[in-house]
Amino acid sequence: MKVDTVILAAGQGTRMKSNLPKVLHEIAKKPMLAHVIEAAQQAVTESETHVVIGHGSEQVKSTLSNYPVSWVLQEQQLGTGHAVHQAIEHVASSDLVLILYGDVPLLKQETIQQLINAAQQTGFALLTVTLADATGYGRIVRNSEEKITAIVEHKDASSEQLAINEINTGIMAVNSEKLQRWLPKLSNDNAQGEYYLTDIVAMAVADGMTITAVHPTCEQEVEGVNNKVQLAKLERWYQQQLAEALMIAGATLRDPNRVDIRGEVTVGKDVIIDVNAVFEGNVTLSDNVTIEPNCILKDCQIGSNTIVKANSIIEDSVVHDNCDIGPFARLRPGTELAEKAKVGNFVETKKTTIGAGSKVNHLSYVGDAEVGAGVNIGAGTITCNYDGANKFKTTIEDNVFIGSNTSLVAPVTVSQGATTGAGSTITKNVPANELAIGRARQTNLGGWQRPTKKS
Question: Which residues take part in binding UDP-N-acetyl-alpha-D-glucosamine (predicted)?
C-alpha cells in the first residue's frame, strides 16, 4: 500500500511575535518542521512527503533544503482543508494520505505507524486525545454506539459539545480516493470563514465509513506550538525524555533538568555528566567518561576514562582513552588526542593531532600541527600557522620539550628529542636532540631609575 504524507506548514504564527516562520522555531536546536519530516519518513520509509508552505516559504525551503520533500505553495491561508487541497494532485496515485502538522513537532514514529495501520483497516483513522482542559480544540462527537460522527471546532461548538474532553489533534490518515472526492465539497460557512479539513469526518460518516480513533502515548506528542511559552515547555519536556534515556543507558546525570541534548548522544557505562552540559550533533562518551559543569560537546568521540573539566568546548574532534582536558580548554574541528594526552586550561587546538602522553598544560594555541608522543609544550606556546593568506603546518616529533612562550613559525619541524628555550621564536627546523634558542640577549643596565610622577 502506497502512503504519501502531507505536512501543513504554511501558517505565519503571529503569536510567536517573530520574523522567523513558525515551523522553523527549534526544539533541541532542530526546526520543528524537521522533527515532523524525520518522524514521517522513518515511519513510512517509502512515503513521498509533500510540505505545504506559505508564510516565509523561501526561507523554509532554504533552511530544509537537504530533506527529500516536495514543496507545495499555499498562497492564501484559507484553512486546513484548503491547504490539503493544494497538495491533492501530488497524492493522486497513493492509497493512503497521512496528514501531519509542522508545528506539532514531537509526534513519535510508533504513533504514526499505529495511525497508518488503523487507516489501512477502515480507510480513515484520527489521532485523538482526552484533555482535562479542552479549551480551543475541536471536539470529537460520538453517537450512542461510541462511533465518531463529527468534529466540531471550539468556536462552532454548542454548550453540550464544549463539555466533551476528547479532542481532535488534526492528525489523520485517510483513503486517498475518498479524500480527493471530499475536499472540493468543503465549505467555509463557519465562524472563522475557513475551509476546515475536519468537515470530511461528517462526509465519511455519510458515506458509511467507520472512523477509527488512535491515541498517542502522552499529550506532549500532539501538543502544537503557538507561542514561545509553549515552545519552551515542549523543549523542556523533550529534554527530560532525552535525559532519562541517557540515565537508562547507564549515565549518571547530576541534575537531569540541567542538561541539553541537541542531537544523538551515545554513552557507555558509568559516564558522569555534571550540570549545564550541552551536546550537539553526534557525540559518543565511552565508559567512565566524566563531563564537568558547563561543557559543550559537538560531533565528537570521547574515549574511556577521559575527564573533560569545567567550561571546556570540544567540536568535531576525537579523544582517545585516559585523556585529561581543561578546564577552559577548546578543541576545535580536526583535533585528535592520543591516549593519555593532556590539554589543560586556556589551551586551544585546531586541526592538530597530539600524541600519546603529550601535554599542552596551559595558555597555548596549537593549530595545524602534528605533535608526537611524550611531548611537553610549555605555557604560552603558539604555532604561528597563518601568513595572512595561507595556513602552514608545524611538526613536533616525539619527546620534544617546548619551552614556555615559544613561537613556532610554520612551516617548521622540531625533530625528536629536541628542546626549545623559553621565549624563543623558532623559524628554522630544529635537528634531533638539539637545543634551539631564538631570542634577544639580556642586557642589565646599572644605575637605572624608574620614572617618577610629575606633580
Answer: 8-11, 22, 74, 79-80, 101-103, 138, 153, 168, 226, 332, 350, 365, 376
